[in-house]
Amino acid sequence: MSRNDYEIVMGLEVHAELSTKTKIFCSCPTTFGAAPNTHTCPICMAMPGTLPVLNEKVVEYAVKAGLATNCEISRNSKNDRKNYFYPDLPKAYQISQFDQPLCEHGYVEIETSEGKKKIRLTRIHIEEDAGKLNHDDLGGGSLVDLNRAGVPLIEIVSEPDLRTAEEVEQYLRKLKSILEYIEVSDCKMQEGSLRADVNVSVRKIGSKEFGTRTEMKNMNSFRSIVRAIEYEAQRQIDVLEDGGKIDQETLRWDDVSGKTFSMRDKEDAQDYRYFPDPDLVAIKLSEEYIENIRQGLPELPESRKKRYLEEFKLSEKDANIIIASKYLSNLFEEATKISGNAKAVNNWIISDISRILNEKELEPNEIPFTSEHLANLVILIDKGTISSSIGKKVLEELFENPREPQKIIEEKGWAQISDEGAIKEVVLKILEANPQSVADYKAGKDRALGFLVGQAMKETKGKANPQMLNQMFLENLK
Ligand code: ADP
Ligand code: MG
Ligand code: ZN
After folding, report:
1. Which ligand 1 atom sits closest to the C-alpha of 210?
2. Which of 13, 155, 202, 271 for mutating ligand 1's site (highest number of atoms within 8 Å of CB)?
3. Which residue spans of the chain are classified as CATH 1.10.10.410?
4. Considering the entire predicted model, what is its pTM?
5. How many A from CA of 152 to the centre of ligand 3?
6. CATH class entry, domain 420-477
7. pLDDT for 71-126, tens place per residue?
8. Is the dihedral of CA 468, 470, 473, 475 positive or negative?
9. Hey, which of 67, 91, 115, 182 has its CA 20 to 30 A from 297?
């Protein structure tokens, strides 16, 4: 039997740090990157005798996330203690939610090369993040930084509905875009604001039972996730084909060697001794509270996409690229509103802007210029002040040193030559320098005209107005 006789089954546990100003049970700030242990207080450092108070914003953000992913919102919910020992967790328990999560039974719709598919969400619950261990290479020990302890998280648990690495990637991208649109998390994967535990099992195609799963913890790059899934699925198939069996274990993916390693096995044997946290009151939500949040939800990516197809006649493919990021989508809408040219704005975003983002390894929200800059670039081309090839150079400038496109073309002397006298001068010069092409054209070789226009463009460094140039050549070749 081979790889093709097996099916991969996956379910994800996605952790997103919420972008509340303060932590979940104390008023310490949640900002990333501060000096170690400066964002701490007796509560998040777990001093005896301290009491947690639930941050209301955390509930609001989690309910928002639940509503945006089609979940049922629990009217009655609570916080539970999940007991385990680890040096980054000074209380020796994490406050999480066990049997009454805030949100349940949702779904998100994804789109892959195979078409559309609904991925069911089991639940979304709130919990606190743990601290962080910094391994001290010089001293040989580990130092704990509790700035992250108590940063609010939502954990989004999917059903085992995912079947390919492509589906997993699309699912994560969709979740990320939804969380960005509703502004509950900055989703910065490189800072760990969004990370996924990927559960993988394999089974023979046609089999009804799921295989034993392994879990790869804390993955935070799309590329690693796709590689890790391919590797881990193949590893499991090889074990089964050799007559072995899969251990349910927690794995660590190593990007350098491209392999998974065992962290601890038989995780199911670990007993977290969950019980309701006696220091926190039950969470009771009224219909009115939930309805208010529902009413306040912003427009979600799916709805924007629908509008782009109908209102602006974008292709499905282009619309997907634009809505994937709230930032790109806002850029598109604002620049279109100012310039009145949706088609041109769309083309800039999906071609040159996307390419430059890729080359520079930037996220859309790191684009340095404004939607007004982009709109004005479009307007300058529409008015014929610059050609579209000069436009590309203006865009490069906007990435390097953003300022008004009008100013850029003035500084650089890039304005299009639309002066009849100047154009005529160039045309006559090129005709004189290329007698063979003139003869060819007169002998019926139309292609010679293209060559002459090209020469004139070269001469003017791409600045001549192409329509006028063409016209002038035709007149002078008669
Ligand atoms: P735990 O919290 O112990 O990891 P959960 O029951 O919350 O366990 O499930 C974790 C994830 O594992 C879920 O996303 C679920 O869809 C997924 N999962 C469960 N069984 C399998 C399986 N056989 N193969 C792949 N994924 C699975
Ligand atoms: Mg798990
Ligand atoms: Zn604190």
Report:
1. 23
2. 13
3. 420-477
4. 0.83
5. 12
6. mainly alpha
7. 999 999 999 999 999 999 999 999 999 999 999 999 999 988 888 999 999 999 99
8. negative
9. 115
pLDDT score of 365? 86
- β-strand pairing of 132-135 with 142-145: antiparallel
Radius of gyration of the chain (CA): 29
Ligand 1 centroid to 130 CA: how many Å?
A: 21
For the stretch 399-437, pLDDT in tens is 999 999 999 998 988 888 878 888 899 999 999 999 999
Measured from the CB, is residue 201 less than 6 Å from ligand 1? Answer: yes
Give the Å distance between the CA of 293 and the centre of ligand 2.
29
Of the chain, the percentage scoring pLDDT greater than 90 comes to 75
- Ligand 3 centroid from CA 41, angstroms: 4
Q: What is the mean pLDDT of residues 178-187?
A: 93
Ligand number nearest to the C-alpha of 214 = 1
- Of ligand 1's atoms, which has the minimum distance to the CA of residue 157? 14
pLDDT tens profile 37-66: 999 999 999 999 999 999 999 999 999 999
* For ligand 1, atom 15: residue with the closest CA: 11
- 352 Cβ closer than 6 Å to some ligand 1 atom: no
